Amino acid sequence: MTAQASTPHQPLRSRSHTFWLQARSNRSFMTGIAITASVVAMALISFAWTPYDVLELDIASKLQSPSLSHWFGTDHFGRDILSMIMVGARNSIAVALVAVVIGIGVGVPLGCWAASRGGLMGEALMRGNDLIFAFPALLSAVIITAIFGPGAINAIIAIGIFNIPVFARLARGATLSLLTREFVLAARVAGKGSVRIIAEHILPNMANLLVVQGTIAFALGILQEAGLAYVGLGTQPPFPSWGKMLNEAQTMMSFAPHMAIVPGLAIVVTVLGLNLLGDGLRDILDPRLSKARE
Amino acid sequence: MIKALAHKLIWAALTLVVASVLVFFALEIVPGDPAEVMLGINATDEAIAALRKQLGIDLPPLQRYFAWVGGLLTGDLGTSYTYSVPVLELVTERVVVSLPLALMALFLSTAIAIPVGLIAAGKRGTMADTGIMAVTQIGIAIPNFWFALLLVYVLALWLQWVPAGGFPGWEKGWWPGLNALLLPAIALALPQAAILSRVTRSALLETLGEDYIRTARAKGLSRRATLSRHALRNALIPVVTIIGLQFAYLLAGTIIIENVFYLPGLGRLLFQAINLRDLILVESVVMLLVATIIAVNFLVDLTYVWIDPRLRSTNKAGNTATNRAGNTSGTEAQTDGAS
Amino acid sequence: MGFETRKTCTRALALGVCTVGLALAGTSALSTMAHAAKTTLTMGMVLEPPHLDPTAGAPAAIDEVVYANVFEGLTRIAPNGAVVPSLAESWTVSDDGKTYTFNLREGVNFHDGSAFESTDVKFSIERAMAEGSTNAQKALFSAIDSVTATDPGTVTISLKNPTGNFLFNMAWGDAVIVAPESADTNKANPVGTGPFQFSRWAKGSAVDLVRNEAYWGTKAALEKATFRFISDPAAALSAMLAGDVDAFANFPAPESIPQLRADPRFTVVVGSTEGETILSTNNQRPPFNDVRVRQAMAHAIDRQAIIDGAMFGLGTPIGTHFAPHHPAYVDLVGQYEFNPEKAKALLAEAGFADGIKATLKLPPPSYARRGGEIIASQLRKVGIELEIIPVEWGVWVPEVFKGKDYDLTIVSHTEPMDIGIYGRDDYYFNYDSPDFKALMASLDGEADEQKRYALMSDAQKVLANDAVNGFLFQLAKAGVWNAKLNGMWENSPIQANDITGVSWSD
Q1: For residue C268, what is the enclosing H or E element?
Q2: Residue in chain C lying closest to A149 (CA)
């Protein structure tokens, strides 16, 4: 993936035009974007409206199976599961998205820096990456939450830290290969400094890679958040999260299976949508790879 | 090549040192005192102080750090605060569950993924390929703990084919033991297999595009023979990378699955130890895992050389491994693999 | 495992010989009974004990394995909560109530074969009292002045002052009798005098006990008992349904009780425990230092909804800190009826018409985590916004219990007869009532039962009037076991899984 930095940037309009032309015929992309857009829309709607108030407990109507008044049934506190899924989407998206932003925000500058400095610094950075990866991710998350206490913010940190090396490596590889390209050499000859070269020439050419990787990291972030919340380390009550809903559903599977099935499906569909989107984006943005695949 | 490996070894040692510092001092700032947790809410301050002294946690952190590292170097992992038995003994008891589970899951995942990947690559563009890709795409999206819950519900509670959980111990024979590990292994393996088969497929397709394969085909070798004889071997590098990553992930990252099936594995030992603030146990086990993961990465590097003799003459293996070995979480592997 | 010394090996050999003899006798006895009866038991427990020495740690899980089964004290608690003789066959108390003379049972041996004598009693108690002792309940021994081993069969204990609860205190798991030879290794290899002896501990999974064939009293019907640790409620249900576990004295998932009850394979008994589950309140921290705020909370809390929602209907509402099954219990549940309007009025009166923001720290048990969510939702309706902070015990103990850095928390106080904690200085409630302390002082010096009960009922009323804490419910114990098992404890007067009387019916 590292060597596939795309062609030097073309005029913006023609680029986006080609993009949409290709996108429309890409099934992965279209399915992915449809699913992702629906999930995001659901999360956004939940700010303004949900069928029921998720903070309102109604013990009397607990554990109802799906019905017309509660499409996905109610949980053990009598909360409406559809409403919880909607609000939970907010949480999943926010945690995963911020974790990706952390990954890009810290990882990309580090990667570019390591590539342009080269030598020992580059090596040291990559070793730092290895160091992070030598720690089992979930375990580190457990330690992080043991230090700071459980909560959405700490879930973001735990997931975000593991995104940093992914993007750092990506950025370093892309930078290294771009640095040898004519347009970069030309810019250098023209007397531009490294920072300017990176900002003006390297980053725009890396954007495609980042978008693809970002989408995938986003999908993984949702899975990881669910895992953390499932073991009780993610978002805390009273705010619903999909992973926590699964945790609560576990002991009630035999008489209220809807409590486990609905949030699980929500996770699967969302992650699936993002993965399809990522695949589609890769096909469209990375012509070399698409050709290899055909 | 030897130089490159020596270089890697030095870095591995350095990584371990840094990791030990990180682990030790990260746990130092975890709130909560082991002695307080052990003695509970009615204990007098005097009793707590006595226990702290007995455990040796009244000493300054730096002194404890060096004592701990010194112990590690001589193979002494320390004595668990809560269980008051040697950490090594606790770890051994857990490894005999975690390791077979990880190996079973890895075996299942590989045994499913490689043929599936071969079929998909061989029938690229057909209905079979599309179908397989769709299924694996869903497989990647399924959280393994949710899958585990569904498995328990259907196979253990409803059909009652397999035990719902627990581990009888190997002394009852290998069959009850394997039987107890079967469901957790499946729950772990299937999502991994989904990733691995995609990686296998795309790695195969990539090699199929290369010149020597075209030559082989031109020489009249059947597509099938080309696939299994030439392409597979050369596609193995990314596949082995992912297998290595998945193994590291499986060994340590099974906390959630161990909880679903209440298996006495390494992950649960750690989880409990953190909650009980059995710091020495956490520290030593984390170091052991880190060392194992580094060792697995190293082995993966060696495998590259074995797979592709061309690498013996260059430094490429080392770098590839570094780049490949990045993603610890098995799911993350898809990015590397698909490229 | 590596702790076997040569000494214990030789002892084990001696024991082995003795076991064979008894086993032969046992076989003939068994043959007259129904011979198909199963003689093994797998008991599920939620938490694994960190070690197995009840005299060196607080976790209830230790007692749940070894109390009465492996270790015995001078006295013990019977299933009905009464104090009955154990290693002490009988005792006399001097008129001033300060000297207890215990007559010890004869012919009792520790599992390693060494004889039990008065010196062991002296050793055990002095060890618990000693400076540097890690006994978690040193307060049990605080009244003791001296212990004298008068002769091998007699122990005399002198107290500094009369202590009404002394025999009860000596029945605790923290006061069991251990042998000097094995005291230091009991954590990993417990050696007691009980009807079961330790056999194996697969860490993280199970502890095995086997019948002590040389037991001094009635031998256990079970030959082997396994305590298996299953922390996950869902896994506990699966294990029960799959038959992997025969019994759960305290089933961790109340939501599954209806399902288990409907299943003819199981007996489900909902019994009482000593656990007063309360919304502990920091009485010094504003605004909770205002009694009207605490009373407002009491009116805002719908106990039944909490019991239904968090415990799936298991539990008895309480209005003060006292177990409803105790004869001196006063029903004060109605004192603060559920009335959000009244709560709002009280808050307004106290100057908090605009609402209150506070934190609610919740330890891991599900009664706390689930109950906390419900309470937060109930209090929100009267304008009290609670931020929920889940904490592990490792944090709860130093922060909340020791550091008193909290506004509200939920915890079940499971020690029996623990109303006295409200009279302690520096206890985490930060409750300081001279009236209450005076009542406790009179109670300590009072030996007459009726008068004691009267004092206890006054004390309960003081706590209710001051609305010290949110009194929620008495924790119920849902015991689930195979319908063919007999002799399981229905209630839980002390945290233990006494399986000495358990047997299979066919």
Answers
A1: strand C266-281
A2: C391
Residue with tokens 């799936």: C312
pLDDT of res. A239: 85
Helical (H) or strand (E) element with B236: helix B232-252
Query: From the CB of residue C378, how many other CB atoms can be counted at a distance below 10 Å?
Result: 23
pLDDT in tens, C59-101: 788 999 999 999 999 999 988 888 999 999 999 999 888 899 9
Which residues in chain A have Cβ-Cβ distances shorter than 8 Å to C305? Answer: 57, 59
Per residue in A44-53, is it b (16+ CB within 10 Å) or e — as a string? eebeeebebe
Sign of CA dihedral C404, C408, C409, C414: positive
Nearest-angstrom CA–CA distance, C186 and C189: 5
Strands C83-85 and C75-77: antiparallel
- Whether C388 has its CB under 8 Å from any CB of chain A: the answer is yes
Residue B264 has which token pair?
């006495």
Q: In whole angstroms, what is the distance from residue C96 CA to residue B6 CA? A: 81
- pLDDT at C17 (0 to 100): 32
- The token pair at A207 is 């954007």
Contact B158, C191 (CB under 8 A): no
- Is the Cβ–Cβ distance between A152 and A236 less than 8 Å? yes
| Any B CB within 8 A of A133 CB | yes
Contact A237 C374 (CB under 8 A): no
Q: CB of C392 within 8 Å of any CB in chain A?
A: yes
Q: To the nearest whole angstrom, how far is the Cα of B203 from the nearest Cα of chain A?
A: 10
| Burial of A187 per CB tally in 10 Å (0-12, 13-18, 19+) | middle
Q: Decide if B328 and A231 are in contact by the 8 Å CB cutoff.
A: no
Nearest to A72, CA basis, from A42, A35, A37: A42
Inform me whether the C-beta atom of residue C244 falls under 8 Å from chain B C-beta atoms.
Answer: yes
Q: What are phi and psi of A63, to 5 degrees?
A: 55, 35
Q: How far is CA B239 from CA A122, B254, B325, C109, C378, in A?
A: 27, 21, 11, 63, 55
Strand runs (DSSP E) across C294-335, as ranges? 316-317
A neighbour chains, 3+ CB pairs within 8 Å: B, C
The answer to whether the Cβ–Cβ distance between C57 and B40 falls below 8 Å is yes
The alpha carbons of chain B give a radius of gyration, in whole angstroms, of 23
Q: A108: closest CA among A210, A196, A180, A178?
A: A210
For chain C, list residues with pLDDT below 70. Answer: 1-36
Residue in B254, B70, B263 with CA at minimum distance from that of residue B177: B263
Chain A / chain B CB contacts < 8 angstroms: 160
For C393, the closest of B37, B85, B94 (CB atoms) is B37
- Average pLDDT of chain B to the nearest whole number: 79
Tell me which of C205, C237, C248, C260 to substitute to probe the interface with B (most B C-beta atoms closer than 10 Å).
C205
**Predicted ipTM of the assembly:** 0.83
| Rounded-to-integer distance, Cα B267 and Cα B252, Å | 6
Give residue A146's pLDDT band: very low, low, confident or very high (50, 70, 90): confident
Confirm or reject contact between C253 and chain A (CB < 8 A): yes
- How far, rounded to the nearest angstrom, does the alpha carbon of residue C54 sit from its chain's CA centroid? 12
Torsion over CA: C245, C246, C251, C256 (sign) = positive
CB contact under 8 A, C392 and A250: no
The residue among C1, A127, C236, A138 whose CA lies nearest residue B261 is: C236
Partner C contacted by B96 (CB < 8 A): no
* Residue from B12, B25, B67, B27 nearest B281 by CA: B27
Helix axes A203-230, A258-285, angle to 10 degrees: 170
Quote the pLDDT of residue C195: 95
Separation CA B114–CA B227 (nearest Å): 12
- Chain segment A260-274, per-residue pLDDT in tens: 999 999 999 999 999
Question: What are the backbone angles phi and psi of residue A255, rounded to the nearest 5°?
Answer: -120, -10
